[in-house]
Structure formats: structure tokens, C-alpha cells
Amino acid sequence: METLTQPVQNSMKPGKWLNSSCKMCIHSCTTRIHVTEDGVINKIEGNPTSPSNNGRLCPKGNAAIMRHYDPARFRTPLRRTNPEKGPGVDPKWEPIGWDEALDLVGRELRKTLDDDPRKLMPAINDFQKLFLWAWPAALGNANYLSSVGNFCGGGYHPMNGFIHAAFAAANDVNYCNYWINNGGGDGFSSHLHTAAQANHVAKARVERNMRVVVIEPRLSIGAAKANEWVPIRPATDRQFALGLAHVLVAEKLYDAKFLKKDTNAPYLVGPDGYFVRNGEGKIYVWDAVDNRARLWDDPELNDFALEGTYTIDGKPCRPAFQKFKDILGDCSPEQMEKLTTVPAATTRRIAREFAKAAQIGSFIEIDGRVLPLRPAAYNYYRGAQGHKYSAMANHAFKLVNFLVGAIDTPGGHVGVTLDDQMQDIRGGFGAIRPGENGMLQTMPHQLHPEVPFSWPPNETHLMGFFPIGVDPGHLTQHTLANADKFGLDYQPDTLLMCHSNPLWNLPGDREQWYDLLRSMRFIVAIDILPNESNEWADVILPSHDLLESWNMTMIEPPHHEGMCLRQPATPPLYDTKSEEEIFYEISERLGLLETWNGILNFVNGFHQKPELLLEPNRKYSDREIAERKGKLWNGQGLDWYVEHGHAVTPRRPDKWYRPWDGMRLHFYLEDIVRARDTLRQKMEAADVPFRHEWEWGDYQPLPTAVPDPVHLEPADFDLYAITFKDIQINFGESIGNPWINDIVFKDPVHTAVLLNPKTAREKRLDDGDVVRIESPYGAIVAKLALSEGVHPDAVCVSNALSRVATQNTGVRHGGGNFNQLLPANLRHTDACSGQPETVARVRLIKLAGVPTDVAAGNSVFGKMSGMGRAH
Amino acid sequence: MIASNRIADGTFRVGVGLQKAWGVQMATAFFFGEAGAGLYFVAQFFDFVLGMVAGLVMVLVGKAGGHVLHLGQPLRGWRALTKVRTSWVSRGLAAILLFVAAGALHVIDVRSGLLPTAVSQLVAAVALAACFVIMVYQGFAMSQSSAIALWSGGLMPVASLTYALLNGVLLTLVFGFGEPFLAERPETVRLLQVLAVALMLYGLVTVLSLLHGARRASEAGRQSVAMLLQGGFARWFVPLVIGAGFVVSALMMLAAPPAFAWMLAVAGLELTGYYAFRVLVFKAGGYDPALSLAYRFRH
Amino acid sequence: MATWGMVFDLRRCIGCNACAVACKQENSLPDGVFFTKTLSEEVGEYPDVTRSYVPTICNHCEDAPCESACPTGATYTRPDGIVMVDRNKCIGCGTCIVACPYDQRTRLEPEMLHEGLFGGGRLTPFEEQGIGRFTVGTVVKCTFCHERVDAGQLPACVATCPTEARIFGDLDDPASRPRQLILERRGRQPLPEKNTNPRVFYID
Q1: Does Cell inner membrane count among this protein's keywords (chain A) (predicted)?
Q2: Which fold has domain B17-298?
Q3: How far apart are CA C197 and CA C61, in angstroms?
Q4: What are the average pLDDT values for consecutive 10-residue runs of chain B, which has 299 residues?
Q5: Of B5, B11, B76, which to mutate for an interface test with A (greatest number of A Cβ within 10 Å)?
Q6: Are strands A494-498 and A120-124 parallel, antiparallel or unpaired?
């Protein structure tokens, strides 16, 4: 027998355990980190004391050590010595000291500020330090060169703000029995706290037999685990949802009591799309018993009419519900099948199953509160909502939940706040407040206050023209290419990136993005590892990684809440700084220290506990900011958090279920009509030349079945390309991490582009063929793999294939970035939400082989390294 | 195609995985084992000293040397003697050591007659027995485990023994061609020729039966056989193992005049086929998927 | 004395391979070496198609063919059923690799240990602190995280599995979770026809 004096397993070696949190995706599963006596981090596990992730971690969370010790990490501040910039061009970095680097950055940013502060393009994307996103506000700058947020959730987040006054939404796993996932991986492969959600959803599936129905063009992980996979043609999810709604309404499978009592569905809508109001602004409803109009809160009212056409003061009007019913007249499952390809019988069956599972009329008592129990919910995310008519799509999915009364109920579809719902953070984006006429006040701005309209526009991405949406960073390509038309009276010349990779995440033509970056006078990047974008920087400011820094965060936890601590497990390996320190140093050099502290107080909500307020002219460390955020949450100091690691508890039922009790939800979104008309007035008043081209049809108070313009592309682009991530590459940069590479590039769905075998036969294509995937906007190259788990109209491109060569040689590249197949223009952007279309119409052109530039280097399509050598 | 390609090839797909632990070095060692032992076996029958020496050298240098080259920790190779009770590899090593010692002693004894008769006979018997073990144990080493369907059939030791005898006969015809025991007795040459042809036929039937059995044994067996007969390895397996190793060499042997060139040619063809057999049967060895729903789904 | 075993719940497994990475962390595995991995398989034809995920690991067989085939005694079974390899006795002949019906063993080739996870022969501090447990040319495999188990903890893959698809426990104890699951959901052993009597069971 082997005799051992020292353990060989890492977690059993002498050392210490530290509580911390993960940051391998944007969310914050709690962890415990093992550090050896020699100070080496040799194991990271989930923290079993957290009821959220229950000690579990996803593969990315398990791979954090490899990011920490990645030899490609930036080790000191760097200055570019190669004046030539381009994709894959070596910047020829020269190490410099921090003082020199910060002085240089301060000097260059000062130039920009003195010239025109609007010329700065920020791309600050650290989700666990959301307060950093507000730094450009210190300069009065609201530009944004990134697609983070709007690519996945441009329409999603504002709609959650409309319906739940929340940032995200989840199906309530605690009670749900019928779980529809449409184009989102919640509970299986992606989105909110993946390891935690997968844990809870697996329990519900196996221990409670929760039925899972997944609607997607590709057999994703969720679809593979589902009781039923419903393949759907890409970009037709809204039509599927409307087909469901049609059945629910036509067969009277809806929760009329909920709609009458808890929503604005009975409010009467006039021909102008606004509610019918009296002189004092109070809204009318129709009394179904007395057959007369009454004010919504008339105590004499017998019963709300949901249906019918009425006349008030000579003006025809209908209850909002009737308006939706009118729309649904053209949305039968049979009509929708023509677009979605989902058999009408399937849609009808799912609608009936869904309604039955919802147990309309049932109640449950939780914490002494009697709540409607609706254990059926329709969840969705990027794949379903990432289309031109995104606001309408989001609304359609919400309305399916509305119809069965499953909004914010136990078992239903529940709003998820970014942080604490009740706390007045970032101006109260997550607060539940009463609005007018008994309705909940909508909160469509979940990330920052509304950017004021301006003409000429102050923002290259026209954020001032989006009174509802998430920053459409991609539009900068469109506006700069047509600067005269869009009235841009300046050309951005400075780029500040912080944990951001806009060249990877932005849709649109790569060459045009390269031209924009070439035209920059100065680029600074705060980051850890080289990527597609920071190889263009003039200066790199290296930050600590997640194992070297302090933080306190609670980011979109679906079923739990409470701050999670991040603490350094080792001293920094290299000459790096925290993001807090970097921004303080820059702010000080720009004379903005006081402004920045004021902004930090605002976005972190420190004014709620005045003893936490940051003093105007001090610089604070990451530790000091983290400590304040922890104290704000539960009054506990850092020592408490170091001992416990987190303050995670299940969501408090009073704030999780129907926190708006007594207010009415927005079944009908009059606010969208108002936003449209207000914007139109502003554009008229300013005589904005493109106001007639503006996509005014995108603003709808109720969703319709109008096809997204992607379906109207030229017919010879006969397939639909979609991109997908799985749990191994969920969010953010994962490729290049050797442990992630080791599992991703052995998984057949990530090493080639997937096509249905029947489609392939029709096109005389075969497994292993090399094709160029061409859209009207761009092209990429790929190797094909045939899979039965693909809709015949779909071409599925793993996000693992969308990297391009960088200075980080561990990053394997595919045949180009999927996003270059996508347009970055107004026509394919939802004017209501800023959401760009994320599906591309494409055609496949067979190539003789992998082009040499694609096969070069560490290509996924070149010689496969590591294959089989382990046997 | 993701759904229908049954060879996993190092990916994370459920499918047949190819073994890569035993490769060309192991095949070469096996080759020399069954060539050398076979030669010694036949040579001792004829008291053909040169043949016995050549057989001993092939086993000692070719087989043992090949194994040492293959080992991850060659300096500890002696440890392989410890599990004679259960391991065919252990038994094989014991047989090699015994064979080399007894065989060398026997050769010396044959040349010098230094041993008393009883001891001499005992040494000869021990050498022959150990030699016989080497002629069959490689087959047992492969078929002992059920892991690889292509190898695990009961015919693998039969194939080993058949090949070893065939190799021994042909190498004896080559090495001993000008020697008195053949040169002076053409009927012995004829007998050996007939024996060779019979062994070739027997070998062909054995190999084909072995493939047939593997194909019916499991998914992995079917894939292994398909690789050998239709897939990537067929362009080597069919012409070399079946064609050169059995069919052509048998026909040539039937037609062969008692000429050295012919003997050399036939032996060369057969040994080429045999070496290809050793290499390709290793390379095509595949594991069954631990759990395959698609396989159950289809069958 | 317990007899350790594992159950894989195929309904729970989502094929994320957090298990595989956790194992790499815990055991400092070189690039391309896995003690456990989860495979996937497409089943059926469009649109009646699904994908199953199949976790695989050393089955710590009661009748371990690797152990009987091993010529040196390097492979042995602990009294608690964990099948181990003594790296000081292993000669790297590979006999156990071809004897294991589950393809769960790997011989450590020099480049695996010397190349480094990031290539170029540079080892990170993480690798330097962990690589010493390995000897070039010897065979390695899953040990059920024997040191963790000896300390009363779960194997790393079990502890991290997001969906709790891996259930570890004492197969001798009728009240243990694995025993109950095997009984209730008719657990089956992989490749029973190989007569190895695995201590790993699949339930679906």
C-alpha cells in the first residue's frame, strides 16, 4: 500500500478556508476558497451555508483558479509602443509604473473633457460592481459602446420594470408544476445564478415531477431535460405565445377575477390608445351589471366588464382585455403555425395543460398571508425576446402569465430585483410605488435614470431617443456611418473600457467597428486578460481578479437575496489595483472626486444610512465600499461577513410574492403609447430630420402578430442562424481557460455549427463540410455537424466559435464572430426598447476546405489539439 | 453526424472509445513473442540449434525489449512478476524468464551435453513448456478481460497459438533451409509446407471466426470489425492480414518448389500479415459505451 | 466498514461537466486527463429527439478486472471498496487500461505533466503545488476522492454537482441514500454483462 505523509488531494492539504463569492459569470454564487500554507489557491467550492447555490458551483465557477493563475494576465500597467492598431496586431506592450499610467490616462481624458466630454465612449461592464457603470455620469457623459444588457435583454429588462417593477423575472421554483422555458436556459444552462437555479429546478423536476416544456429552435440542455421539446422556427416565439393566448381566451381558460381586480385589463381604452379619463384624469371602466360607465374606483361598481365595445361621451372605447382579444382574433394556433411551424394541435394542448396546471382559483397560505397559487409559469429570455419587436415579444410572454393570473404568485412568473426591492437604490429602480389610477408605477429604467432627449444628439447610440430601453450600443455604428443624417456634431475619439469586450459583443460589421477603434485618439482598458478589444488599447490598467479583491454584491438572485462577500484569498499576484482605486485615481486627476463620491452615494443607496455616506474628497478602497454595502444590507460589519461569507436567505415572501398587493398591474401598457407620443413631440419640436423614418410602429400597448423584419429578408437567405451558449460558457469570457477549453472543445455541439440532417440532404451538404454562412450583413466560416436536435430552418452557432484571434493564445478561435451576421441599424432595432435583432437570415455556401486564415493558429476548425492523447 | 457516428474519438459523446494504451511497441513485442517462441518450439523439435538461438534472441530482445520500451516505468518492470496468481501478464513474464533460462541451458546442453540425461530432459521439457506458454498467453492476456469485445472472444488464444506455430514452421523453413535436417530430408520440408498451409487455413478460419464473434458480441465489437473490414483500417487489414498473411502465402506455399527464395517470400508475406494483425487488432480495439440509450433505442 | 458507492441520477444530470472540472481542481489533473466526465448522446430523430447525459467514472467494481489483470499488485481494493493504484508499484504496462471495460484509466505521459495547463512547459503555482502526486508513466484514475471520504466529506464531483445528480454513500447501509435510490428507482449497473459488479449505479 502507498504510504503517504502528506495528502495529495488539494482540499485536504494543510491550509485555510476563506469565504468568498464567484465572479466567473455576472452572478454571485457563494464560495469557499482553500489556500495552502504556501499561499497558493488550490481549491474553490460552493459555500454549503448558502441556501441559494447550496454549496454547488457550475463548471465555470469551478475553473476560477485557472483565470487567477493564467500566465496571460496583465501584470503591470502597460503602454502601447506599436502605433499600428488592428485585429490581431501585437500592441508591443511596454510595462510602465502606475503613477505614469494614471497620469497618462488622466492627461488624455482631461484633453477629451476640455475638448468635448461627449467624445468619450465608455464601456464599463463589471456587473458585480454596477456602481462603476455610473462613472461616466461624473463627466456628464451618457455614451455607451457595448451591447451588454441590450443584446440579451434590451426589451426584457424594461418589460420587467413595466410589469413587476423589477430587473429580471423567474418562474417560482418553490411551487411551479408546469414550467415553460422559451429561448432561455433558466434552471438548466444559463441566466440567473445557473448553479443555484439548476439545483432548485432539478429538485422540482425529480422530486415534485414538475413538467418542463421548452420551446426553442435547438435542443438545448433545457430542451434535453424537458418533458417536451417544441422546436420552433427562430424569431417566431412571440407568435407562439400569442397562439397560446388565443386558446386561453377563446376557451375562457383565463383568471377573470385576477384580471378584473389586480390589473388594468378592465380599463377602457379609447381610439387614440389612451385610457378614457374624466376631466380629473380618472379612468373609466364599464359596469357589466348596470351596463354603464363608472370610474375605476367607484364603490358602487358591481362587476368589471372585460369584453365589449362601449361609448363614452360619443367616443367608442373597449376594455383593454377586449383590445387584446381583438388582436388575438388573428392569432389562432393554425394561423401562427404558418410562421412558427409549431403544430396547432401542440399549441392548443400546451395552452390547455398550462391553464389546468395553473389551478386558477386556488390559494395558498404563506406566512399568514393568503395568496393565489398559480403553479404554472412561462419564462423566457434572450432567444425568445431578442428580436426587432422585442417589447411586443416580452409583453406577449408576460400576457400568457397574466391570463392565468400567474404574475408574482407562488408557482408563477415572478419579478426578480437586481438587488433589494424595497431599498431606494439607484434612484429607486426596484421600488414598488403606487402610480396613477390605482396602478403600479412602472419602472422601465432598471439600470440608470432616463437619458434626456437632445438634438443634436449627445449620445452616438441615441439613448436620448429611447425613453424606455436599455442602451443600444450597437447603433453607434449606424449613426457614425450616417453622421449628417443623425445630426452628430462630434466624432468620439476616446474609449474607456472596464471588463468589457465590445468588439466581441457588439452586433454589426467588424470592419466598421475596427475603423471606429482606429479613429480613436486614446483608448484605455481596465482588465485582467487580453481580449479582442483591449488589444486596441493605448494603456492597460490591470485590475485585481476575483480572488484578490473585496466586493459586496447581490446580483439578480432569483429565489434568494442578501449580500455576498468577495474577499482577497491571496495578495495580488501582480502589480494590479482594484477597480475602485483605479477610478478614484482617475477621478482625482480629473478633479471629479467629489462628484464621483456623490454618484457612488446615490447608486449604492448610502444616503439611506447617513453614517455610510462617502465623504466628498476622500478616496475609498474596495474594502471600504464593500463594508458599507454590507452594512447597508443588514447592519453587519466586514468581520461578520468574513465569518459568514454572505447574508443569503430565501426571498422574503412579502417582497417576493405580490409586493404590489392593492395596486393594479399593467396588462395594457399605456405608458408605451405615452412614451411614443412624447418622443414624437420632442422630435417634431426639434425638427429632427429622421423623425419620419423612426420606427413608430414598434411602440404598441399590446403585442400583435406582425412578423419581425428578419422574416422579410431576401428569400435566397433561406435559413435562420442563431447563436447559443451552454452552461460551460454561460455569460462572459470563458474560452481560453484550460479547464473550460478541456470540456467545451470535446462537446460536439461546441466544435461545429449544427444543422438538421434533412436540411443538409436537401442542400447536398454533409457532416464535416466547410461552409461560409452568409447573411445580408456579413459572413463567417464554419464546419458543419449534423444534428437531429435542430429545427430544419435553423443554423446553430455555439458562442464558443465566435472568438477571433487575440493576444491571448489560449483563446481558440472559430470562423469569425456570429455577431457580424447581424445588422446594427434602426430597421432591426426595437425603437421601443433598443433591442437589436439577434437572429440572422443566412445561406450556406460550401467551401472546398477550411480557409488557411481560419485554420491557422489555435483554431477550433484546424487540427484538434488534445484529442485522444489522454488514452 | 452527432446522432449516428458511433465512434466517440476522445469527444464527450456516448459511443465506442478506441483503446490507445497498447500501440505499436506492444504489437511489436507480441510479434516477436509469437515469432520467436514459435521458431524455438519447432526448432527444438528438430534439435535445430540455430533456430533455437534465434527464437531465444527474438523473445529476449524483441519481445522483452519491446515490452520494456512500452513500459511507463521500465526500471520497475520486475514488479510484473508479483501477480502470477491472477495476471496473464505476470504469468507471461514468468514464462519468458523461465524460457530464456531453460532454453539457453538447453542449447548449451545440446551443444556440449554437459547435463545428466534426466536433468537434460527436464530442462528441455521446461523450456518447451515455457515456450508453449509464450505461444498462447498473449492471447489470454487479451481475452482475459471482457473490456474490449474484439479481444475478449475465446478464439484469441487459439489465434495466438496458430500464428505462433505457423511463424515457427515458416521461420524454420527459412533459417533451417540449408541445414541437414531439412536439406537431407525433403519429406520433412514437404511436411512442414503442408503443415504451414494447414495452419494458414486454420488461422484464416480462426481470424474470421474471431471477427464474426466480435461483431455479434457488442456495439464496440461491431464497430471494431467494421473498422477492420470496411472502415479506415480495411485498406491494411484486408490485403495484409487476410490476403498476404493467409490467402496468397498459402497459395504460394502450395505451389512452392523447395527453393530458399520461395520460403523466404512466403515467410515474409505471412509475417507481414501477422504483424499487421497484431497492430490493427490493437488499434481497432474499442470499449463499449457504459450506457447508451440510443443503442437500446435502436435495438 | 462502509462500502462506498455512487448513484447517477440521469433525470437530474444536465451534462455541465462541473464534476469534471471540480475533479481537475481537487486532483490537479493534467490537460486532457479526466477521472470523471459526463458524455452526451442524441437519441431519436427530429422532432422526436432528445439528448441524454451520461456521467462516467471509475466504477470501483467489486470484481475489478483492472485489479486482477494488473501484474504488479499496484491496483488494489481498499477494505471500503475503493479501488486504488499505488503509483510506487505501477510499471505503466497499460494492462489495467485495456482491462477496464469503462475506459476510466489513463497513463500519464511525460508531456502531460511537463507541458502545463497553459502549454509551453510553464507550470502555474497551482500546478506546482499539485503535480507532485503524479509519477510519469504510471496509471491514474478516480479514487472516489479517498482522502475527502476518509475525512467524512463527499467526493469533489458530488459536492459540486449543481443538480445533485451524483449521490454518494455506503452501499452496505440499507438506509443510505444510494441504497434507497437503487431500490426505489431500480438502479442498474453499467455493462452488467462484463461481470464486474460495479459500485456505481444509474437511475432514470
Answers
A1: no
A2: Formate dehydrogenase/DMSO reductase fold (1.20.1630)
A3: 5
A4: 78 94 96 97 95 97 95 95 94 96 96 92 96 97 91 94 98 94 92 96 97 94 96 96 97 92 96 98 95 65
A5: B11
A6: parallel
DSSP, collapsed to helix, strand or coil, labels residue A86 as: coil
3 state SS for A200-237: HHHHHHHHCCCEEEEEECECCHHHHHCCEEEECCCCCH
In terms of CATH, what superfamily is A165-263+327-439? Dimethylsulfoxide Reductase, domain 2 (3.40.228.10)
Of the candidate CATH numbers 3.40.50.740, 3.90.1640.30, 3.30.70.330, 1.10.760.10, the domain formed by A96-141+451-553+563-647 belongs to: 3.40.50.740
Q: How far is CA C104 from the centre of its chain?
A: 7
- CATH number of the structural domain A709-855: 2.40.40.20
What is the per-residue pLDDT for B296? 56
- In chain C, what are the domains? 4-203 (3.30.70.20)
What's at A733, amino acid-wise? E
- Torsion, CA A183, CA A187, CA A193, CA A195, rounded to 10: -130
Q: Is the bond preceding A659 in cis, omega lying within 30 degrees of 0?
A: no
CB contacts, 8 Å: A63 with chain C: 21, 25
Q: Which residues contact C177 (CB under 8 A, 6 or more apart)?
A: C7, C167, C169
pLDDT at B9: 81
The string of DSSP codes covering A644-679 is: HSB--EEPPHHHHS-TTTTSBB-SS-HHHHHHHHHH
Q: From residue B281, how far is each of A410, B130, B273 by CA, in Å?
A: 61, 25, 12
Domain boundaries defined on chain B: 17-298
Q: Are A410 and A657 in contact (CB under 8 A)?
A: yes
**Other beta carbons within 10 Å of A745:** 21
pLDDT score at A103: 98
Domain spans in chain A, listed from the N-terminal domain onward: 96-141+451-553+563-647, 165-263+327-439, 709-855
Higher per-residue pLDDT: A871 or C168: C168
CB contact under 8 A, C43 and B293: yes
pLDDT per 10-residue tile (average), chain A, 871 residues: 73 98 94 97 97 97 97 97 95 98 98 97 94 94 90 93 93 97 94 94 97 98 97 98 98 98 98 97 97 97 97 96 98 98 98 98 97 98 96 98 98 87 56 93 86 96 93 95 95 97 95 96 97 96 97 90 96 98 98 96 89 96 97 95 96 92 97 97 96 96 98 97 94 90 94 97 96 97 96 97 85 93 96 96 96 87 49 28
The grid cell for A836 is 437589436
The pLDDT of residue A421 is 47
**Is C106–A69 a contact, with Cβ atoms under 8 angstroms apart?**
no
Kindly determine whether residue A748 and residue B18, on different chains, have CB atoms separated by under 8 Å: no
Q: Tell me if C189 sits within 8 A of C59, measured CB to CB.
A: yes
Give me the residues paired with residue C5 across strands: C169
* Minimum distance, in Å, between the CA of residue B298 and any CA atom of chain C: 9
What chain C residue is nearest to A728 in terms of C-alpha separation?
A: C16
Count how many pairs of residues, chain A against chain C, have C-beta atoms within 8 Å.
Answer: 206
Question: Which residue in chain A is spatially nearest to C52 when comparing CA positions?
Answer: A224
The whole-number pLDDT of residue C19 equals 98
Closest-CA residue to A585 (of A541, A627, A540): A541
ipTM for this prediction: 0.97
* Tens-digit pLDDT profile for residues B53-92: 999 999 999 999 999 999 999 999 999 999 999 999 999 9
Closest C-alpha to A728, from A45, A260, A57: A57
- Cβ of A757 within 8 Å of Cβ of B17? The answer is no
Cβ contacts of residue A313 below 8 Å, gap of 6+? Answer: none
